[in-house]
Write a structure and sequence with these properties.
The protein is an alpha/beta fold. Among the domains are: 3-86, Udp-n-acetylmuramoylalanyl-d-glutamate--2,6- Diaminopimelate Ligase, Chain: A, domain 1, CATH 3.40.1390; 153-296, Hexapeptide repeat proteins (UDP N-Acetylglucosamine Acyltransferase, domain 1), CATH 2.160.10.10. 14% of the residues lie in helices and 28% in strands. The chain has four helices and 37 strands. The strands form five sheets. The chain has an eleven-stranded parallel beta sheet, with no helix packed on it. Strands 7-10-13-16-19-24-27-30-33-36 form a ten-stranded parallel beta sheet, with no helix packed on it. A nine-stranded parallel beta sheet has the order 8-11-14-17-22-25-28-31-34, with no helix packed on it. The radius of gyration is 25 Å and the shape is flat. The N and C termini lie far apart (75 Å). Its EC number is 2.3.1.191.
Length: 326
């Protein structure tokens, strides 16, 4: 795509452009070569831009550097959109003869089902859905239009998946929740007969697990994005446009509000309610309800080991010290 085409498409202005170069790649400022375009999101990267080998940079203002520039309102967003334009996904349609599909499955238009995928009775698949090889779709699952399910995903029975959902490899949706009761000293399994509901425009990362509710629903609401290796237990409800970063764990029957961010390795105890617009910093444990519109955190950052041993020494002595102070 020519620089002039990029500028026209994104309502940009060409600056210091001597040649209408054909852009074939997108790279960072440090790794870009001729034929690549990069972007500057902050003036602190101007020195990097001066030394870049990129054929052009996207920027929000005219810069006094000898590099061709396209001036746009939001360079970073334009860069992301260019990735989609220059590197589109390969169009896949057709149903593999090596897949196993029950007789009463409803399949929409332009659907792709890859080799060795298994589709059970009563499944409904919307238009333009992509199901990659080695997936298992259990009975009575409903999948909305334009959803993409990558290889080796397992979706248990009765799950409802909305439109424009992305589920990455290895995810397991609607396995039984972790529930047992004791009878005569023995742990007995509690049968889970609820389901999982994934609303529109949700993304679920690789090897993430979302458990089936015991009798009701585990719900992931529209627009929420879930990273790899996240665990969401039975009967949970995760609100709209929420971000769950890698290794977050949410115990059963908890409710997470809208526009929440749980950073990496946050652990949430069972039956907790987290209000809207909350941010919880990495490695924090949430053991009680959190009020909306606040930032919470309890993770301790790494410090030099000998200093930490001294801290622990005094930490263990705190009860004794407090007793003396009284």
């Amino acid at each position: 795509m020519k620089l002039s085409e990029i500028a026209k498409r994104f309502d940009g202005e060409l600056y210091r452009v001597k040649e209408d170069t054909d852009i074939k790649g997108l790279k960072s400022l440090s790794s870009a070569k001729k034929g690549d375009i990069s972007f500057i999101a902050d003036r602190k990267y101007i020195d990097d831009a001066k030394n870049t080998s990129a054929s052009a940079v996207l920027t929000s203002e005219k810069l006094d550097i000898d590099v061709p520039q396209i001036i746009v309102k939001n360079p970073q967003t334009v860069f992301y959109q260019l990735i989609e334009l220059l590197f589109p996904e390969k169009e896949r349609t057709g149903i593999s003869e090596k897949s196993s599909i029950s007789g009463d499955v409803k399949i929409g238009k332009d659907v792709y089902i890859g080799d060795f995928s298994v589709i059970e009775d009563g499944v409904e698949i919307g238009d333009n859905v992509k199901i990659y090889p080695n997936c298992y779709i259990g009975s009575n699952v409903k999948i909305g239009n334009n959803t993409v399910i990558y290889p080796n995903v397992t979706i248990y029975k009765d799950t409802e998946i909305g439109k424009n959902v992305i589920i990455h490899s290895g995810a397991v949706i609607a396995a039984d929740g972790f529930g047992y009761y004791k009878e005569k000293g023995i742990h007995k399994k509690i049968k889970h007969i609820g389901k999982v509901v994934i609303e529109d425009n949700v993304e679920i990362g690789a090897n993430t697990t979302i458990d089936r509710a015991m009798v009701d629903e585990t719900v992931i609401k529209r627009g929420t994005k879930i990273d790899n290796l996240v665990m969401i237990a039975h009967n949970c409800c995760v609100g709209e446009n929420t971000i769950l970063v890698s290794q977050v764990g949410i115990a059963g029957s908890s409710k997470v509000g809208n526009n929440v961010i749980l950073a990496g390795q946050v652990g949430v105890a069972d039956h907790i309610t987290i209000g809207d617009n909350v941010i919880v910093t990495a490695k924090s444990g949430v053991g009680k309800d959190l009020e909306p519109n606040k930032v919470y955190g309890s993770g301790i950052q790494a410090i030099e080991w000998s200093k930490w041993k001294k801290v622990l020494f005094y930490l263990y002595k705190l009860p004794e010290i407090i007793k003396k102070l009284k």
